[in-house]
Fold:
Amino acid sequence: MITTIDHIIERLEGLAPQTAFVLGSGLGGLVGAIENAVHLPYSELAGFPASGVSGHAGELVAGTLAGKPVLMLAGRSHYYEKGDAAVMRPVIEILHGLGIKNLVLTNSAGSLREDLAPGSVMLITDHINLSGTNPLIGEESDRRFVGMTNAYDDGLCDRLRAAARAEDIALGEGVYMWFSGPSFETPAEIGMARTLGADAVGMSTVPEVILGRFVGLNCAACSVITNFAAGMTGGELSHEETKQMAPVGGKRLQTILTRFIADSH
Structure:
């Protein structure tokens, strides 16, 4: 029986990437930059869930970026879609089985800081899991007790900082707080998040980082800031605003990630 890993390896035709990206809203342009691209819809890959979120393509794309082999997950599934925090576990395990060493995640997020305006990019240096759940709930082995002290790998973060400097792009840094969604946060919740030390809020990434560390991947993540969080401007938040603003910061992050790969060894 041919497994999903076998099928992907066959389609890669000898390409052996060690870095995979998870692309959030607004990063579709990065897929277009891949040369000799192989497109594999999630619907054709056992274990890959179909995302029900507009703005997420739902395909695995492999090829070369800046001359280096890469894998990209164009779209993800979220906890809020079906209430399953481990929805991306099969995907992360498949990436590990393919020989991926480094997992770089991206997302759209709301800013809690005036100096992180919509259209900017933030390097996630740590996270706060406020969702009340965890993708490893139900795991029976002692492997479930995953250390998260260095969840966001120092080496990968330094390389992302260097890439931003080389491209003269401002890269903010901060703590990302995971809310379950799908409703946006209230002003009171944002006040709490700020008090607890968060710099940005969103509805993804944290479970994937936990799963990535669970299987032994080095992880890093960046947020594209699409809006100021609830209560900061007086206006209401919407997913349409997220989709409209994501490409603005997405172009900056695309440049950073391309340089990040170009300068990898």
